[in-house]
Amino acid sequence: MERFRVQIVDDYEPWRRFIRSAFRKRTELEIVGESSDGLQAIQQAQELRPDLILLDLGLPTIDGIETARRLRKLLPQCKILFLSQESSPEIVQEALSTGARGYVVKQSLNELMKAVTAALAA
Known about the structure:
By secondary structure, this protein is an alpha/beta fold. It has a single domain (4-121), classed as 3-Layer(aba) Sandwich (Rossmann fold), CATH 3.40.50. The protein contains five helices and five strands. Strands 2-1-3-4-5 form a five-stranded parallel β-sheet, sandwiched between helices. The longest helix is centred in the C-terminal third of the chain and has 13 residues, at 109-121. The protein is globular.
């Protein structure tokens, strides 16, 4: 079975813990790193080379959209999936314009898992 390396980028530690817990049930997903701000996420991603980055919008130092733009230039093969509480169509569109594979509002674990599967299959 193919394994996918995942990096979680979110400044809210309880949310990162929730994702870690949920991903334990998915043996094909290996969490290789966690970051709490945009700059740290970029540095860590260059080191770890994850297959998928779960990226929050509201981050310290560099927001999620700018972080995604920089990551796309540095690691074009890496897939990005935004996770946010923000559901404004304008924000969603701007986030997706970075080349991200998807955007999930932080509400449903089921939707998150569907989006992760779709992002990795693309």
